[in-house]
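Thread title: Can someone regenerate the structure for this chain?

I was given the following input by a collaborator and told the matching structure tokens would be attached. They weren't. Posting the sequence so someone can regenerate them.
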Amino acid sequence: MTNTKLSELPTITSISSEDLLYVVDDPAGTPTSSKITFSNFQNSLTSVNSAITSGLALITSGTLASRQIVAGSAKIAVTNGSGVAGNPSIDLGSVSLADLTDGASLASIAALTSGVVAITGVGTAAGRTITGTANEITVTNGDGVSGNPTLSLASGIDATKIGAGTVSSTEFGYLDGVTSAIQTQINAKQTTDATLTALAAYNTNGLLTQTAADTFTGRTITGTANQITVTNGDGVAGNPTLSLDATLAALGTYNTNGLLTQTAADTFTGRTITGTNNQIDVTDGNGVSGNPTIGLSDNLLLGTIGATKDGGGVALSTGKIGGYITCPYTASITAWSIGVDTGTATVKVWKVATGTAVPTAANSINTSGVSISSGTYIRSATLTDFTDTTVTANNILAFNIEAVSGATQITFALELTKP
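Best answer:
Regenerated them for you:
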């Protein structure tokens, strides 16, 4: 049979009496490998079981023996010492203090009436009461009679009792109100400089104003008369308040198109410049789209130029009506009129530029002439007979009767308007 590890041996599920078991004999001394049949192993167990009939089992030098707990003194009572009828129970019997090793000390303790026990010597004891130092330690139930002794720190303890005792109570009081690390707070503070020093010394009412490096003074806001009113300009009694003069305030709420016009105290409205028909033309009269522009109307009547001829009751004949007329301005002929006392008449207008000659028939600006054929007066804006309706400044005009019948008086006029 070759050497084989125990773990490599085949496994069986049953055993017979002649099978062998491997045994190490005297493992604590000189161990040797031996064998035993399963039958002899069973017989050995049977001999062990027969050695114990009752009681507690005890192994002594490889031998199994029966034991039980017994009382060694009358002062100790043992019940069920063998454990057969139940668990063993051990109780003290009647014991006096003299039976104890330090009976004298216990006797001294027993003689005490109150207080915390203190051993004062061999066999002696005393009752003590725990007390504290005034303003340092407060003790409640120092003798333990009414409850557990309780020690607490007194309020107002002298700070010199803390740590090395180098901090006074006054210095310690400076910590009141501290909510975080003092050094951290100090490190976070602004370092001192000249500006901060100047501000610390500043003690003037008014709005803080720096007038030079590290130089400060108090200022007061003031307003301009009839423009800005200031209340609490120095800020002492409240926030400075600036308000506009009533007129400026009214202007501030003004919201009307047109030319600003004051109609009463602090009252404004918008106006529009308008012109008179055929006299004054106005563009952008309210100023909204541009500057107002004012000019003479294109139909502005600048005046009339005319002449009268009276025959003194004698019928008129052809020829000029009056003398020559110089027009002082440039204009347009827009209408004409003829007045007679009776009869009919036809008139032509002569016109020549200023110079050294007066107008003649050759300077007529009419084709056939304008006429009155009924009634005694006619005004007409029909200018179809005129070959030229423009009159230039300083033109010389003349009015000539081309035909007349029955009239002894005649008046002729031209209406001139702005060109």
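The first helix runs from residue 38 to 51.
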